[in-house]
Design goal:
Helix content: 40-55%
Shape: elongated
Order of helices and strands: EEHEHEHEHEEHEHEHEEHHHHEE
Number of strands: 13
Largest sheet: 5 strands, mixed
Distance between the termini: 46 Å
Length: 297
């Protein structure tokens, strides 16, 4: 695993600084590095040049050590991280203006331009290709393998320049084509702002969860709590004994997957409490109470 890191200097007040981790290929990482100093008063940004499985492994390690408040990524990488992590993930998004600027830049190389976007092709581009005097060949992808297949297909059609994400740009350049990044400094700035807001909320939530854990610690009954997504956010020592795992191994895990017998999904869906329900877990019979706790509705 080749990991390239750029760490901005830590702030004077240390712990008050929000901690962001950006993961992507180098083309987009360079844009983040170009604007990171603008946010130095609010956040310390770690930039890691990795994507997909390698990026996920690094993100999980950062999450396990509690060394990050929010992640930032883009495209397929961002979608993968959001699905796999409990820590919030902000996504840098491509705007229509970004695409137009990239296409104008590509037009300087050739009239035939390929564009490979994450998720779906952009139907609206058909309306502007005549305006730009350009032939656009579009493909979409969801995995790195699909991105590579799409780029190779454009190369086989002798398309000399391809617009797309950082992974598309990297793959294009590996084949001797010109790759143009579809993202702009403006979209990167917005992605970082979104990450800072998510990090602030995460800090507040973490403080609340720690206080909740402190309350549960003094209870003799086995107790745990989950967040709205069903992930465990607090539990006490008796519940650790019931689950047969230490706190570090269960925090952030989905209760539905870890101990389906204790699932709170129905309670969260209906808002109705359950009292003294008979339940079994690992041959241990228990009376279970389930309570839905709401704040501000």
């Amino acid at each position: 695993m080749n990991e390239t890191k750029h760490l901005l200097p830590p702030p004077v007040d240390g712990d008050a600084q929000l901690r962001l981790c950006f993961l992507s290929y180098q083309p987009l990482s360079q844009l983040v590095l170009a604007v990171a100093d603008e946010f130095a008063a609010e956040a310390r940004i770690e930039i890691v040049d990795e994507t997909f499985d390698a990026a996920l492994a690094i993100a999980r390690q950062r999450e396990a050590t509690g060394s990050v408040d929010a992640f930032v990524s883009a495209g397929a990488n961002g979608a993968m991280l959001r699905a796999a992590l409990a820590t919030p993930v902000a996504t840098i998004r491509v705007t229509g203006y970004d695409i137009l600027v990239a296409l104008r830049q590509a037009r300087q190389t050739s009239r035939r331009v390929g564009i490979v976007t994450y998720g779906a092709t952009i139907a609206e581009l058909d309306a502007v290709k005549d305006l730009l005097d350009i032939e656009i060949l579009q493909y979409a992808y969801r995995t790195r393998e699909e991105a590579e297949t799409r780029v190779r297909a454009l190369a086989a059609q002798r398309v000399p320049v391809i617009v797309g994400s950082s992974v598309v740009v990297t793959l294009s350049e590996q084949l001797g084509l010109r790759g143009i990044l579809a993202y702009s400094l403006s979209s990167v700035r917005q992605g970082i702002r979104d990450a800072i807001e998510l990090a602030r909320i995460a800090r507040l939530e973490t403080g609340r969860y720690e206080r909740l854990h402190g309350v549960l610690h003094h209870l003799k009954e086995a107790v745990l709590a989950v967040d709205p997504q069903g992930r465990i956010i607090a539990l006490n020592a008796p519940m650790q004994s019931v689950l047969g795992r230490p706190r570090e191994q269960v925090m952030g895990q989905l209760l539905e997957e870890l101990a389906p017998e204790l699932s709170l999904a129905e309670t969260q869906a209906t808002g109705l409490d359950e009292r003294r329900q008979d339940s079994w877990i690992d041959r241990l019979e228990m009376l279970v109470d389930r309570t839905d706790i709401r704040e501000h509705g």
